[in-house]
Amino acid sequence: MSNKYQILNDTDLSQYSWFGIGGKAKNFFIPSDSDNLSDYLIENNSKNYFVLGSGSNVLFRDTGYSNLIIKLGKGFRNIEIKNNQLVVGAGVLKAQVSEFALKNKIKNFEFLCCIPGMVGGGVFMNAGCFGSDFSKIVKEVRGIYSNGNKNYLDKNKIGFDYRKTNLPEDFVITEVVFNIEDGNFDIINSMINEFKKIKSDSQPKNIKTGGSTFKNPQFSKKAWELIKESGCDKVKFGHAKF
Fold this sequence. Notes:
The protein has helices spanning 34-44, 94-103, 119-124, 185-202, 223-229, and strands spanning 7-12, 24-29, 49-52, 65-71, 79-82, 85-89, 128-129, 132-133, 138-144, 150-154, 172-179, 236-237, 240-241. It has 242 residues and is α+β, with helices and mostly antiparallel strands.
């Protein structure tokens, strides 16, 4: 393997997991930027890989992972304003985008302050809360296919739905372009503080939690109501519980 690729062997996955669990990854690739990732995929042309973000919604088995894991490196953590658009690397945390938007008086990004994980995964699953989601702010998604080809997709070519999109499984998101709408600093800051308070009052603190793990069904009751009414909120598996 060429030394231009940072391939780690027998990497302890627990250090990359929100829950701090998991065995070892046989191969762990940290591309430095989109060119590095594209070159690797062109040379290897394999779909047997898993793209890992912050690990906030991933459970790794104790036996480890035999295929390749791709973890986006520092070259994917850019966040800047270009041509009156917000351009963000897929490896940026959602909360960081919310902070950046606040400092630059950009509205509609307030909800991101309460969602863990990175931008790439958030777009892929159309993450959201407090009545908003990525479909309302995304303009364009840039990425690389498993054959190494770079491409971009306009919002109107992406099928956004409730907590999902129709983005191809082998499409690695590298950068996201967002629409910019000017706002008032005090109003934006007030909304962020309100969202944080609601989350703090309604969700457990100082413990390992996956947050809102379950999608709400397409009828009247919420997921948490069904879990509570079924008694599953009292079910435990070792040290894990709902």
